[in-house]
Each structure stands twice: as C-alpha cells, then as structure tokens.
Amino acid sequence: MVANHPMIELRRLHRFFGKTKAVNDVSFEVPRGTVFGYIGPNGAGKTTSMRILASLELPTYGDAFVDGFSVINDPDRVRRRLGFMPDYFGTYADVNVEEYLDFFARSYGLIGRERHQRLQYVMHFTGLDVLKEKPIRGLSKGMKQRLCLGRAMVHDPAVLILDEPANGLDPRARIELREMIRELAARGTTVLVSSHILTELAEMCDRVAILERGQLLALGTVAEIQKQQQPQREVNVGVLGDPTSLLQWLTVRTDVADVRLNAHSIRFAHQGERESEAALLREMLQAGFAVCEFGSHNRSLEDVFLAVTKGLVQ
Ligand SMILES: Nc1ncnc2c1ncn2[C@@H]1O[C@H](COP(=O)(O)OP(=O)(O)OP(=O)(O)O)[C@@H](O)[C@H]1O
C-alpha cells in the first residue's frame, strides 16, 4: 500500500434496491486531513454511500476504501479506522452522557487509563464535560448532536463520516459544529460530511461532490464548481443622467452580453476576470460616462446548486 493513498475512495460504486439506483457509478477520492462535502437533495444516495463506507451495507458493484482497506474484503479494519455519525439519534436507556460514551469506548476495546483519558478528551472537545452527569434523554437537539459526534470519535478514528450533522441545529450550534469539524481536520482527521444544501458546507469544505439520483453531477472546490456553472459575472453600473448612450456603448461590445436597463442602473453579464472588469470601468470613464456606481458578483451558491441539480427525486 502506498503511503499517500486517499483516506476515502469510492471506486465505480453502485448500490441498487430493486429498480432504484440509489448509488449509480460514483467515484471520487478524499485525501488525508481534508473536509469533503457530500451534497444532494433527498434521495440522492448520500446515506446509502455513507453506510457502505461504514461497512453497514454492501455495494451491488464497485468498491469503497477507507485508509486503503476495502469495505468488501476488510470490513473489520475499515470499522477500526472510521467513525460514523448517522442522521438519526435513536432512543436509549436511562444513562448519562459519560456512561453513554464509556459504553462505546469499551465496545471499541479501550481499557483503563487510555479509556479514561480518551473520554475526558472527547467530552472536552465536544463541550459535553459540563453535562457529563446529565441523562441523555434530557439533552437538547444540539447537545445530542455533540454526543453523537463524541460517540463517532471515541476510538480516535482517522476518518469521520457525518450524515447531515447540522440537521435541526440553530445558527450558533451550526457555527460551533463547523469549527469542531475544521479543528478535527487540522489535527489530521479526514471528514466526509453530508448536507442538502451547498451553502451550509461551502465555508467548511475543501472540496465537495454534488449528487443527484445516485449520480455524481459535480466534483471540485466550491469555487471551481461555481466557475464551471457560471464563467460570467453579473455587473451593475449606475450612471448620472440619461443611461441610453451607455446602453448603446455596451451593446456593441463583444465582452458584454444580456444588457438590461433597470430603474436607475444598467445590468449585464461580463465575460472575463476581475482585471478585465477594472479595464472596462476605466474605458467607460475615458469615454466620458459619469459612472457613480459599479459592482459585480457571482451567482449565489444557492443558484449554482439549483443549476447543477434538477430537483429530481427517486
Ligand atoms: N434499504 C432500502 N431499501 C429500498 N430503497 C432504499 C433503501 N435505502 C435507500 N433506498 C432508496 O435509495 C435512494 C437513495 O436514498 P438515500 O437515503 O441514500 O438518499 P439521501 O441522499 O441520503 O437522501 P436524504 O437526504 O433524504 O437522506 C432513495 O430513493 C431511497 O428511497
């Protein structure tokens, strides 16, 4: 096995349930220490492929690897290296936070001082140390999510698979979760995290995959995907006086398209980098237009996500 193999790899992964192609020929690699976003609408196949990685489900065809070990041929080694946080939190007996985590630490074979230290570390990392004696059925949704993360990381796995961990969290809890995930990656943990929406993951992920109806639609950094979807930027120009002559000036240019007159400004799509936008503004001023406003922006991530996916469910 080579030293710098990907920590997660899906290789032509397929999983069918009858006629439903839950995962349909998906391949990608995730390098060590990165946060990888797995994004798609309901029924896209995110949970199914995560369950395959967690060796809870077998592929129909293809294979998946964790730290170089196949989920088909080496599920025990995969389980030791991987922590899985499912998208639901089941009901549990009347135990408190520490007892709950201790149970999972024991089930991973941690003993004595090592188990004690690991529990202290996990409770401190997740902020649960102050709640360690609280019965888990009395925890808030956000605290239960932290406990679920604590459970997934109790055996210090190299890879964490988090299925919609931000589901149902309030804005502050989302930010805290994002910080925890980034910190885990900074310490070398590889994290695969799923969500329905790109905006939620955009800031914390190094790379993302967009999935729909079992198929991979886009793969790359958020900026790469955004650029693929919209190489043009939308520019808005305000000008003093009658805008008609600027409108005509813009319409004949080849680097400008879709010129529209708004109430007090002109909008158009501009092909090119930021430098050519600056050059365009300079030319406008040199041509004598009294420009009082000039702004540009990419399409929002929501728009990009909607453009990539088609809203198809299965
Ligand atoms: N055990 C199963 N038996 C039959 N069909 C299944 C099973 N598990 C998943 N599916 C189907 O496979 C498809 C993909 O489901 P999956 O749960 O992987 O999607 P998802 O992207 O996680 O969706 P969500 O965001 O709604 O959780 C869906 O059509 C689902 O109904």
From TrEMBL:
Matches recorded under InterPro entries: AAA+_ATPase (IPR003593), ABC_transporter-like_ATP-bd (IPR003439), ABC_transporter-like_CS (IPR017871), P-loop_NTPase (IPR027417)
ABC transporter domain sequence ranges: 8-238
- Keyword tRNA processing present in the record's keywords: the answer is no
Quote the Pfam families the UniProt record gives: ABC_tran
What CDD domains does the database record attribute to this sequence?
Answer: ABC_DR_subfamily_A
What superkingdom does the record give? Bacteria
Q: Which family does it belong to?
A: Belongs to the ABC transporter superfamily.
Q: Tell me what this protein is called.
A: Putative ABC transporter ATP-binding protein YbhF
Q: State the organism named in the record.
A: Anatilimnocola aggregata
Upper classification of the organism: Bacteria, Pseudomonadati, Planctomycetota, Planctomycetia, Pirellulales
Q: Which gene encodes it?
A: ybhF_2
